[in-house]
Structures are given as C-alpha cells and as structure tokens.
Model the fold of this input.
Amino acid sequence: MGTEFGTIGSALSALQAERKALEITGQNIANSSTAGYTRQRAVFTAVGGSVIPAMYSKSDGIGAGVNLSDVQRLQDTFLEQRANTENGTLSNLNSMQGTLSDIENSFGEPGDNGLQALLSSYWNGWDDVANNPGDSAARTALIGTAQSLATGLNVAAGSLSSQWTSSNESLQSIVNNVNGTATNIAALNKAIVAATSAGNHPNDLMDQRDLLIRQLSSQIGATTRVNNDGSTDVFVGGSALVSGSLARQLTLSGATAVDQATTNPVSLAWSDTGQVVNTASGQVGGLLTALNTTIPSYASQLDTVASQLVTSVNAQQGAGYDLTGAAGSPFFDPAKTKASNIAVVLTDPNGVAASSQPPTLDANGNPVVSLDGSNAQKFANFSGTGADAAYRQMIVQLGSESQSAQQKVTTQQSVVQQIQTSRDSAAGVDLDEEQTNLITYQQAYNASAKFLSVLDSVLDTLINRTLV
Done:
C-alpha cells in the first residue's frame, strides 16, 4: 500500500509542476509585447528515490515525482551588456548630429535669407555705389543691406546662444532623471536581494531593473556588474552610481552662457565628493561636447566673421572720402565687434566713402568732391575674401562635420539593430515556441491526470479485493 500511496504523490507533483509550467507559458504570452520583458522558462528536476536503506526496508529507487526547481530568465548577459554599450554610443552620436543639424538651421544655408546671401547683397551694394557714386538711392540701399547683414549676424549669434541654453537645460533635465533612475535601481536591488534570499523568483523585478539600466546606458553610457546576491552595480565613468541598495547623485556646474564655456566649461560631478565624472558616452556625453566644444566653436568663428567685417570695412571706409569731401567715418560701430552686437553707425548716405580721391579746389577756391567711385569698388572686391572667406570656410566645415556625423549614426544604427536582433532571439518571446510549449505542458498535465485516475482505479480494486 505504501508504494501505491507514494505513487499518488508522484502524480500530484507532476500535476503541480505542469500547471506551474502552463502558468509561466501564459505569462510569456501575455507579455509578448511588453517592453523590457524577458522570456521565462520552467526548469524541472526529478525527485529521486531514497539511496539510503532503512533498518528493515529499502527503496525501490523508482523516484518520487518531479519538482519545478527554477523559473529561469532566458537572458544572455553578454548580449545585454553589449546592447547597453552600443545604445549609449548611438545616443551620443545622435546627440552630436542633432547639435550640428540645429547649428545648420541657425545659419539657414543655402538660402535667400542666409548670411551668405546677406554678405553678397552687401558687397553688391558697394558695386552699385561704385558704378553710380553720386546716386543717393544706391548709397541708401547700401546702408540698408548693411543693417540687414548686421541683423542677420545678431540673429545667428542669438540662435546659437539659445541653442546652448536649451542644450544646457536638456542636460540638467537628463541628469535629474539619471539621479531618480539610480535611486529606483537601488530600491529594486534591495527588493531583489530580499526575494532571492527568501527563495522566490523576482524575475519581473529584474526586468524592471534592466529596463531602467538600459535607459541609463542611453542617457549616460552606464555599465554594469552583476553580483552573486542578485543585485546589479551600475558604473559611470569608472565609478559606482549604484552599489547594491545605495545610489549616488550627480550634479552640474560651470558656464551658464555660451560665451563662458571656453573659460569655465560645463562639468558633471559627484555630489558627495565633487570629483568630476569622466564620461563621453550617451546623451550626456553628446550634450557636454555640444556645450563645451561644438556650439562655442561656431559661435567663436561667427564672432571672427563679424570682427573681420567691422575691421576691414571701417579701415577701407577711413581710406576714402564721402560726398562732403571728408575722410570716411566708421561704417560699423568699432566698439562692437561680435556677431551678437555688431551694429551699423553710419546713417547718412552722404557719409559713404565711395571716392579714393580727396576733394580739389576750383578756380574760386571752392572744394570739388571727386566722384570716381574707386574706393567703393575696393569694397566690392572684398567679396570672396576676408569675412566672406571666413564665413564660407565655417559653413564648409559645418557641412562636412554634419555629414560625417550622419554617416556615423547610420553605421551605429546598423550595429545596434544587429545586436538587438540577437538579444531578442535570446530574451524575446517567440509566440510559435510558446504555443508549442503550451501544447506540450497541456498534454503532460492530461497524462498526469490520467495516471492519477489509473492509480485511483488500482487502489479501488486493491482495497475492495482486500476487504473481500
């Protein structure tokens, strides 16, 4: 009788194990579209018979059924870490490419309203004055094109400044999000360690934690280390952001405007030690590059264009003579040589120094102003040189960098896609496979139930026959 009742226990263990396996399969199917979900698998272990004989009996060695010993997460740790690293690199490249694209939009090249068109209009205005030195309309139009050019430089500089401010605000927002995510990961680590110690399977908590880690990898290029107790440490720039159930915080310091970035760069540091965090990956790395290098560089080059324009134009203006016969006065405000503040100070059309010849005296001793227009022609010849050349060189550089950045993004997207496909094949839910498992576990459950029914019939026969 002992053997028969022991067999009932084996049948019961099979029913319980197969039912649990069906529940796990159902969980996989239910979460086939859930972001960050990792496929789970039931791991069965046979319950063997006793190998130690008793004093008056011994085991038949058949066994005592089956146990569901583990609910395994089908995750490839190497692929997971590689995917995090490559996603961080892609986010970094996307950030830098986005910065360059926004700078291109600031200049509006090529286009009718771009700075190159405004520069061309300005030099053409001088050419018109050279051809008609005494024409007041040509001189007035020239001053108008100069004012448009100055305004264009002001707007471009303002756009770069606004872009820098917006990038700085985005960086601060991301850092705040990183700090909050780190705190959440530490809390999940604590819960996972507690659940693991109690013999539970905190797979769903691990999925939540891994999803947060992926966000950190994209934002700041975080790396990880899995510990034996089930927790995961997160590192940024070689230092721990999350260590078990403890999370550190990050803070930003440095420049608050684009013109301060060269002497006081924006930096990321640990709140507890003040030590600078060395990270060049993720969105944070891309934004730090934008704030400290890319945007200040083009703002500086634009200032160089404005400075050369003011210097060269005022110098040539001073070398000529206006319609009153006086030496030319400054065309642009000599005290304002940056793109952000360049301004036209010449408002009187008669003050345009179009002539290279000083006034002469007529027979009555009255001054006679020369209208040769040769000095205006020298202005017209500035086209393609000086400020013009500096601006064109800057735009060519910007276009080249933007194109290179886009190519890097395209290449990295291909790498990320390949790794993501490999990761999904290991951790993602395959509905065809789950349906196959569903049928397998269902048939096993039915067979176990049939086995239990047979045992019931056997016991009924045995008991009734014994009683008779």
